[in-house]
Amino acid sequence: MQTFDALADFKMHGHNVLITGGAQNIGAGIAKSFVGAGAKVMIADLQGDKARETAQQITAETGGSCLGMACDVTKEEDIAAVVKATADAFGGISTLVNNVGWGPRHPDPTAITEQELVDAYRLNTVSAYRMSMACLPYLLEARNPSITNSGSFSSEVPAYDILAYGTAKAALNQMMVSVAHMLAQKVRVNSVLIGTVMAAGYAEAGLDAATQERLRHPDNLTGRTGRPRDIANAMLWLASPAGSWVSGQTIQVHGGGAVVRLFGA
Q1: In 3D, which of 221, 201, 208 has the Cα closest to residue 26?
Q2: pTM for the full model?
């Protein structure tokens, strides 16, 4: 008779989760994994109809509890509304995933406007702080409270073609390590630096078909691009009781990065 479950700490029963940017791609993958692990999840997304549709699909596939609603994370009133709706629906919030983020490729990186830089910062950095602080009163009352952020590998390498986005994500890294220390022994805070995960968003960001095809065949240590589930698995570890001894960390999940060959192939 089995008396030990090695996966018990990865289960999310009793956790109430708010995921921003969860209507599709990586965010939807995170939502599905969390619900599958037993959590109740609210998907907050600029595309409200898509958020509700994705939530319904996840509920049907997992038999769990998943809701969706519209939210523009750059608007304080939308943040307040989704936090209240999540707490009202589930009885509180134990887990926040700041997943929302986006940035276009710059046709001419020498001509990025001040407004483009500010907009990137508002969406990718400021919104995560505002959402975290809005959820904080509920997190402080929860069991195993955590904030996990979707960062970007572009925040740690030269990335001039997406300079505004990469710079904003670099700011997110520093900010969330500081928040982890601010909330020490109260709320765990971590970030996942995400590499290339092929999704519809790449075309929307201005990457042409040839570039997308090249990205599908990376010269990294694993030999493949990422899947939403790869990121979801890392997020599940960090947010679940399995990650209860992990905080203030910025963890790279990107296939190991480029292969280094000192003397060529």
Answers
A1: 201
A2: 0.93
If you average pLDDT over residues 76-85, what whole number do you get? 98
pLDDT in tens, 105-125: 899 999 999 999 999 999 999
Residues in the chain: 265
Work out the burial of residue 241: count CB atoms within 10 Å of its CB; fewer than 13 is exposed, 13-18 middle, 19 or more buried: middle
Sign of CA dihedral 232, 17, 173, 246: negative
Q: How far apart are CA 142 and CA 7, in angstroms?
A: 22
Catalytic residue from among 121, 129, 160, 165: 165
CA distance 265 to 254: 21
Query: Are 34 and 233 spatial neighbours (Cβ–Cβ below 8 Å)?
Result: no
**Going by DSSP bridges, is the β-strand pair 16-20/146-152 parallel, antiparallel, or unpaired?**
unpaired
Higher pLDDT, 207 or 66: 66
Neighbours of 5 (CB within 10 A): 9
Active site residue 165: yes
pLDDT digits (tens, 9 = 90+) for 239-250: 999 999 999 999
